[in-house]
Amino acid sequence: EIWKNICRAGYWLPVNIMLWAVIYLMNAASWYAIINDKSQTHVPFRYIYRLTISGYILNYVTPLGLLGGEPYRIMELSPYVGRAKAASSVILYSMMHIFSHFWFWLIGTVLFVIAYPLDWGIGLLLAAIASVSLLVIYFFMKGYRNGLVVKTFRLLSHIPYVNRWARRFHERHAEDLQRIDVQIAALHAQRKSTFYLSLGLELLARIVSSLEIYVLLRILTPEVTFVDSILIMAFSSLLSNLMFFMPMQIGAREGSIALMSERLHLTAGYGLFTGILCRVRELCWIVIGLILIKVKGKTHE
């Protein structure tokens, strides 16, 4: 059945694979702006692009997501800019990536209200999503203004099972963590243009990624619109991110795309077809990312 779907997609599948090369380019540009803005050490963009792809690939295949790609990025970037700068730039970019998700979900709720009639159940659900998104955006903005890392470790030190590790890590790296917080606060306070450029690129990458949904659904039906694709992308990413502890969010993404397609008066079968082909595209990029990691390893040797 998967092979039939691949054949049905035809040349649109490699088109979508190339589309993600553009999306990763936007992600890399967002991170590049954070790293190289007013920095004495210049990191080549092609290197940032490679680390962006390979870091996301490690996140895809690792349970709990960020535990895979982010340490790898810090390790690989440290020889260029030092450990503290590498850690702060990776944390800043990860924050920006998550921050853009909440903006995307907020935009999705507004588009849904504009484009589709609401009943009480959907209205309450959208209100809850919008409220949580606004609350998280507020706390992110506070974190950008005042620093976030030290406060996070202080919070972790009161949580069972991780409190001892958090206390030891904070005591051992207190100076580095404080320096990272200073750099996080400086991005928003002193480099607002860089802050909004990075955020804008990440948000644009979310919107462009909706083109994949649009292209694949257009194979099946002419009734889909780009707004539908944005809504499917926004709310399916919300549902699948709730299953963040699963490697590659197996099943959650396909099911959420099918549910959203059905909700938008398409059919769950269309959504399942789209979800499977998105997974095939992702597997192709996992292979590419692992090759990039291997090639980099040989270069170091």
Concise structural overview:
The protein is an all-alpha fold. Helices cover 83% and strands 0% of the residues. The radius of gyration is 20 Å and the shape is globular.
Write the layout of secondary structure elements.
Blueprint: H1 2-9, H2 12-36, H3 45-61, H4 66-81, H5 83-115, H6 120-146, H7 149-156, H8 163-172, H9 174-190, H10 192-220, H11 226-241, H12 252-263, H13 268-300
Helix pairs in contact: 1-13, 2-3, 2-5, 2-10, 2-13, 3-4, 3-13, 4-5, 5-6, 5-9, 5-10, 5-11, 6-9, 7-8, 10-11, 10-13, 11-12, 12-13
Structural notes for this entry:
- The relative contact order is 0.13.
- It is built from 13 helices and no strands.
- It is 83% helix and 0% strand.
The amount of helix comes to over 70%
Strand content: under 5%
Number of helices: 13
Shape, per Cα inertia axes: globular
Report the C-alpha radius of gyration, rounded.
20 Å
Distance between the termini: 43 Å
Helix and strand element order: HHHHHHHHHHHHH
Structural class: mainly alpha
Mean pLDDT: 82
Poorly predicted regions: none
Number of distinct beta strands: 0
What profile does the largest beta sheet have? Answer: none
